[in-house]
Amino acid sequence: MSWRGIDGGRQAAIKGHSVIMTPVDALYFDFYQSTSLDEPLAIHGLTPLQQVYHYEPVPDGLSPQQQANILGAQGNVWTEYMPDTQAVERMALPRMTALAEVLWTDAAEKDFASFICRLPTMVSYLESLGYTVADSYKKVTATAQVQADTVHVLLATENSASTIFYTLDGSMPDQTSQPYTAPIICRQPTTIRAVAQNRADGQCYGDERITVMPHKALAKPLTVSSAIEKPELLLNGVIATDRIFQFHEWTEITEQGLLATIDLEDQLKLSQVQLGYQAGQYRRLYLPSAITVAVSKDGDDWQTVAEAGQATIKESAPRITLDFKAVTARYIRFTLENTHRAYSEEDRAIIAMPVYIDELVVY
């Protein structure tokens, strides 16, 4: 059974073993089904319906004989966040429906658009039998792209029979709000909330929220002192503190801490920085132990302009704003310390605990 990824299953098949594929990034049905704020509490992780449907259980690089060793795939539901049977059903359905079609359909014949068109009939049938089926696929997903000094927000839904409506002031939208027709170009801090109206029943689904913050360091060259995954998240303009916590939206800081140097590519007047380090909904995170901000005109001589200790960091959560006397500089450096250690049930030992941060905002 291959759950850490696909390579373990591939290697087992090559060696002649029978394999059931159940990779964590596609077939863990205890993960969230959408990023909408009205999703019920779940363990961290995101597996939307489309991600399940596009999963291919037979890995590349296998001979026909080796492919025959892949017996199938399995969806997993760990129930520590599910208080009753209805909650388990909601997490499994309709993702289990998508997985079933994946397993009995040749990869070349899979068609997600067709599946979505047929899904309402299946949902009605399941509900007629008394099952609870999630409507997460009808909700909106927001993503952001940096273009020059602006952030473009894209809104989408897996349900093609929907119209998306949104607001720009953080208020809850409805069918009388602005309809979404093209990417939303943001030149200043903006909180976008969106719902999707199902044209079949007229009902609005979801409560997607994304806050973007264009700033002077947006997508600028970044150098970090230690290996971190996806350092570009630190300067992508997306604020994560008002969303349900998802690992893929945050940068993990280990016990080594973080030394991040940004090249602003010009001498700019600077007077404020911001960063977030506490999750929005459903999850509490460890906080940085200390934050120091320094600036430089040439990258060699550095001047400390702002500092924060544990007490200030805790009081300021979920985000901290550090103001300082205006200074002109080309480079700005963030130093974050992480001294947290705690007992881990999984490791059965005292271990270093990670800190997570979202955006290094520079004004």
UniProtKB/TrEMBL annotation:
<protein>
    <recommendedName>
        <fullName>beta-N-acetylhexosaminidase</fullName>
        <ecNumber>3.2.1.52</ecNumber>
    </recommendedName>
</protein>
<dbReference type="InterPro" id="IPR000421">
    <property type="entry name" value="FA58C"/>
</dbReference>
<dbReference type="Pfam" id="PF13290">
    <property type="entry name" value="CHB_HEX_C_1"/>
</dbReference>
<feature type="domain" description="F5/8 type C">
    <location>
        <begin position="204"/>
        <end position="353"/>
    </location>
</feature>
<dbReference type="InterPro" id="IPR017853">
    <property type="entry name" value="GH"/>
</dbReference>
<dbReference type="Pfam" id="PF00728">
    <property type="entry name" value="Glyco_hydro_20"/>
</dbReference>
<keyword id="KW-0378">Hydrolase</keyword>
<dbReference type="InterPro" id="IPR008979">
    <property type="entry name" value="Galactose-bd-like_sf"/>
</dbReference>
<dbReference type="InterPro" id="IPR059177">
    <property type="entry name" value="GH29D-like_dom"/>
</dbReference>
<dbReference type="GO" id="GO:0004563">
    <property type="term" value="F:beta-N-acetylhexosaminidase activity"/>
</dbReference>
<dbReference type="InterPro" id="IPR025705">
    <property type="entry name" value="Beta_hexosaminidase_sua/sub"/>
</dbReference>
<dbReference type="Pfam" id="PF00754">
    <property type="entry name" value="F5_F8_type_C"/>
</dbReference>
<dbReference type="GO" id="GO:0005975">
    <property type="term" value="P:carbohydrate metabolic process"/>
</dbReference>
<comment type="similarity">
    <text>Belongs to the glycosyl hydrolase 20 family.</text>
</comment>
<dbReference type="InterPro" id="IPR015883">
    <property type="entry name" value="Glyco_hydro_20_cat"/>
</dbReference>
<dbReference type="GO" id="GO:0016020">
    <property type="term" value="C:membrane"/>
</dbReference>
<dbReference type="GO" id="GO:0030203">
    <property type="term" value="P:glycosaminoglycan metabolic process"/>
</dbReference>
